[in-house]
Amino acid sequence: MNKKLALGIDVGGTNSVFGLADEDGNLYFEESIETISCKVPEELVEKIYLRMKEIGQLKNIVGIGIGAPNGNFFSGTIEFAPNLKWKGIIPLARLFEYRFKRKAILTNDANAAAIGEMIYGAAKDLSDFVTITLGTGLGSGVVVSRTLVYGHDGFAGEYGHIRVVNNGRSCGCGRNGCLETYASATGVVRSIKELDSEHKATSKIMALEDPHAYDVFRFSENGDLFCREIIEFTAKTLGEALADFACFSSPKAYILFGGIAQSGQQFADKVKIYMEDALLNIYKDKIEVRISTLHDKNAAVLGASSLVWNQLN
Predict the structure, then answer these.
(1) Distance (Å, rounded) from C-alpha 35 to C-alpha 84?
(2) How confident is the model at residue 1 (pLDDT cuts 50, 70, 90)?
């Protein structure tokens, strides 16, 4: 294949997904690497480079787009990301540029997902929306009049670190009570240990040595009462938080993206109910809660790759 392609990369706390996409949003290749297996960021860069070389696509790559937690669009750096093992300020865009000899553009992973949804997914018909990524942590991409909100320093939209519980759960950012400690895959797992319930002792989830968020949803579907309580608690915490966030940008919709969102429309409906109960009257019955229409992490990969086309055009 001889075609101009963008390399889109979604750096996650557990896994990093990367793929090749054309300007129309067609994905020609997608793969993942365990981020946690890369002791330093240079290892991730090298693994992706060698994979592109192996499949013979280096010559077709016209640029690199990267979505990463705490990614700064202006500087091309990841800065103090609590869910990454790499600490401090990481010049990831520069590392990719040095190895690939191509322009690399980096932004927050949730911002990349928002771009992907706006161009290719559930937000194609929207001008004002917020993407909420529910992965290892919780991220958000805020779009107003089809323009991403970056703020003066590139860090606008860190909804995962707005505190929702006074003196609540400890967060990797160093504070307590952040939303992502309750409404994320990690937060769901923490709820297994930290929520009190009369149904806890008889729950199947307690028998698992290393439970995951998807186990909670799976057992809930099979009637596990404690797991159902965890899901209700998660939906309530997220829904009430989204009600407060509506006061900032008055979005037409929240787009839920990531593993928890992919559990189905039922969870989104629960979030919507709790959000409506907590909304200021002027926002009631005006805000939708949608699920990403792009499979798994493709929204972030496509969003990251679209950074390249925006730069070239």
Answers:
(1) 8
(2) low
For tokens 């679209």, the residue is 306
Parallel, antiparallel or unpaired: strands 5-11 and 61-68 = parallel
CATH architecture of 125-291: 2-Layer Sandwich (3.30)
Pairing mode, strands 253-257 and 288-291: parallel
The mean per-residue pLDDT over the stretch 73-94 comes to 93
For the domain covering 5-114+297-312, report its CATH number.
Answer: 3.30.420.40
pLDDT at 25: 87
- Please state, in angstroms and rounded to a whole number, the distance separating the CA atoms of residues 278 and 236: 10
The CA distance from 25 to 155, in Å, is 26
What is the dihedral sign for C-alpha 286, 290, 294, 298? positive
* Domain boundaries of the chain, sorted by first residue: 5-114+297-312, 125-291
